[in-house]
Amino acid sequence: MTSFAAPLTLKGQHVHLQPLSGSHHDDLVDAVKDGELWTHWYTAIPAPDSMQAEITRRLGLQSQGSMTPFAVIDPASGRAVGMTTYMNIDAANRRVEIGSTWYRRSVQRGPLNTEAKRLLLAHAFEQLNCIAVEFRTHFFNQQSRRAIERLGAKLDGVLRNHQINNHPLAQGALRDTCVYSILASEWPSVKTHLDYQLQRPRNS
After folding, report:
1. Cα separations (Å) of 117 from 83, 84, 159?
2. Which of 103, 104, 25, 100 is nearest to 67 (CA)?
3. Which of the residues in the chain have pLDDT under 70?
4. b or e along 146-175 (b: 16 or more beta carbons within 10 Å of the residue's beta carbon)?
5. Residue 179's pLDDT is what?
6. What single string gives the DSSP state of each residue in 67-121?
7. What is the 3-state secondary structure (H, E, C) of 127-187?
8. 19, containing H or E segment
9. Residue extents of the structural domains in the chain
10. d(Cα 150, Cα 118) in Å, to the nearest integer?
11. Which CATH number applies to 10-199?
12. What is the pLDDT of residue 42?
């Protein structure tokens, strides 16, 4: 099955995005342990013993044409340091969401995320001809919201009582989901902004 957003490899200076496969399992288990990321109640990150099931789930959605999952590779080590996806793919309306993203803690404050988003956005707007790219996150996930806003995405609104949280630390809690987007007409300015962010000196 050839999907609208078919699997491919995207390469930058600080990050490579490879089609997710079972071969990434061990690296991803090691990565998720850096910061015990699965303990964050406001997000859905697989625990080490759930990693295989999560890879299988994402590849199943890929086979249905609704998701294109990537392993996030640190080119310096060649190892997977996280996951990201095109998800909720709407081929008829040329829209995708970038989400289900997580990175090991040691790479979270470097240029990796900015360049990963730069690669995904460029492909979506310049090759897939998307009219909009969406981002969604939990209302209380302040780190994620700040990161999305730094990209140049604008808040479309908040879906209140959008989902029931099944995380062991928040069983039954109701999730308000913040919906952001970047429009095709905004991409040239966003691209300039992201290129500037990647080129400017960073404080150590």
Report:
1. 12, 9, 23
2. 100
3. 1-2, 40-43, 167-172, 201-204
4. ebbeebbbeeeeeeeeeeebebeeeeeeeb
5. 97
6. EEEEEEEETTTTEEEEEEEEEEEETTTTEEEEEEEEE-GGGTTSSHHHHHHHHHH
7. HCCCCEEEEEEECCCHHHHHHHHHHCCEEEEEEEEEEECCCCCCCCCEEEEEEEEEEHHHH
8. strand 16-19
9. 10-199
10. 12
11. 3.40.630.30
12. 61
Contact of 67 with 61, CB cutoff 8 Å: yes
Alpha-carbon distance of 20 to 85, in angstroms, equals 9
In a 10 Å sphere around its CB, with 0-12 CB exposed, 13-18 middle and 19+ buried, how is residue 41 labelled?
Answer: middle
Distances (CA, A) of 128 to 5, 74, 159: 7, 25, 27
What are residue 189's phi and psi, to 5 degrees? Answer: -70, -40
Please give the Cα distance from 145 to 143 (Å, whole number).
6
pLDDT value, residue 41: 59
Query: What pLDDT score does 36 carry?
Result: 81
Q: What is the pLDDT of residue 1?
A: 43
Confidence (pLDDT) at 68: 97
Which residue, among 25, 4, 23, has the nearest Cα to 127 in the 3D structure?
A: 4
